[in-house]
Amino acid sequence: MKEQLFKSLYLAGCDVRLGEKLSQYTTIRIGGPAKAVVFPQTVSAFIDSLNILKEAGESYKILGGGSNVVPPPEFNGIVVSTRFLTGYETVDNRVTAECGITMRRLLRILVAEELSGLEFLSGLPGSLGGALFMNAGAFGGEIGSFVEEVTVLDDNLNLKILRADEIEFSYRYSSLQKYVILKAVLRLRHAPKEKIRKEMERILRRRLEKQPLDLPSAGSTFKRPREDFYVGTTIDALGLKGLRIGGAEISTKHAGFIINRGNATQEDVKMLIEKIQGLVFSAYGVKLEPEVKLWKGGSYV
Ligand SMILES: Cc1cc2nc3c(=O)[nH]c(=O)nc-3n(C[C@H](O)[C@H](O)[C@H](O)COP(=O)(O)OP(=O)(O)OC[C@H]3O[C@@H](n4cnc5c(N)ncnc54)[C@H](O)[C@@H]3O)c2cc1C
Q1: Its Gene Ontology molecular function terms (predicted)?
Q2: Which tens digit of pLDDT belongs to each residue from 81-131?
Q3: Does the annotation mark 202 as catalytic?
Q4: Residues 92 and 41 grouped into a single domain
Q5: pLDDT tens readout for residues 23-32
Q6: Are 180 and 92 members of one domain?
Q7: For ligand 1, mutation pick of 25, 29, 50, 68 (most atoms within 8 Å of CB)
Q8: Domain annotation covers residue 201
């Protein structure tokens, strides 16, 4: 990164780390060095940093909690992390929160404020921005149902406030994917603290029973192709649990997850994904679409 660019980002209120390995920022612990990882300390520094990068003609990617991405061995671009954008406020039954707040922290705040609705996301890793981008869901609920409005930047980095009726949410998709998400207002309902806490604990226990939470992964590898097609069960029925390519392995606990056995690369994950896709297609005629995002080497603006 050129010194002038580094200085501009720094003066705009960002920490900048050159050549950082992305593996330390992803839950699957995969990813080689990026040109730089930029950490805006405020939302206005976030906006400024993107303008600076755009003007400099630098390609970049936004990174939230890194729980749904698998970066390559070398990322020839800049990563802008939202991890310090964690402000929030609650007013009556609404919470307004910045994109980088972790879902874990947000849920703890909701318990304290006696606001109910998002209990089903208990245990979801990652940030609010990532959850909105993916329309994260679990146990029959989706975050999109609780959105009142979202503040975003469009392609030209113009600020926009989108009301819920201007946003499309569907299974693991939101039309917010064409924007940079800055902050959101979620509408919840009042409920007793103890009731919310108990429900969150129940959901957490269910996750613990089913998912390999003690090993690095990026969550469910594939989207469910249709309501009645359970990907994990299908992969299990094909006898693929434990199948390994390089350091990537189909979890023996939940066949819908690929875990990193220590030295997995993006290529290992990609090959394992293709292997599963091929076998599932041969057996069931169903094409599985990855839910995890395999980042390319660079060239994102
Ligand atoms: C153990 C485990 C369990 C999981 N369980 C679930 C589950 O039950 N349900 C579910 O839906 N998912 C689940 N996931 C997947 C993942 O946690 C979710 O998709 C999560 O919402 C991603 O958030 P993140 O902040 O980590 O996003 P990241 O992985 O950082 O990014 C995901 C995508 O969002 C984009 N993005 C992130 N923030 C912004 C922003 N502010 N503006 C614009 N783009 C942005 C990134 O560029 C990237 O394309 C699980 C993952 C793991 C590891």
Answers
A1: FAD binding; UDP-N-acetylmuramate dehydrogenase activity
A2: 999 999 999 999 999 999 999 999 999 999 999 999 999 999 999 999 999
A3: no
A4: no
A5: 999 999 999 9
A6: yes
A7: 68
A8: no
Number of domains present in the structure of the chain: 3
Is there a domain that residue 203 lies in? no
Domain shared by 43 and 101, yes or no: no
**What local confidence, expressed as pLDDT, does residue 299 receive?**
47
- pLDDT for 300 equals 40
**Distance of CA 7 from the midpoint of ligand 1 (Å):** 30
Which residue in 207, 220, 233, 225 sits closest to 293, CA to CA?
A: 220
> Is-contact 182 160, C-beta < 8 A?
no
Q: Is residue 202 domain-resident? A: no
Say if 274 falls within a structural domain: yes
Residues of the chain with pLDDT below 70 are 298-301
Domain that holds residue 104: 88-196
Answer yes or no: do 141 and 218 share one domain: no
Give the residue from 25, 53, 81 where a domain finishes.
81
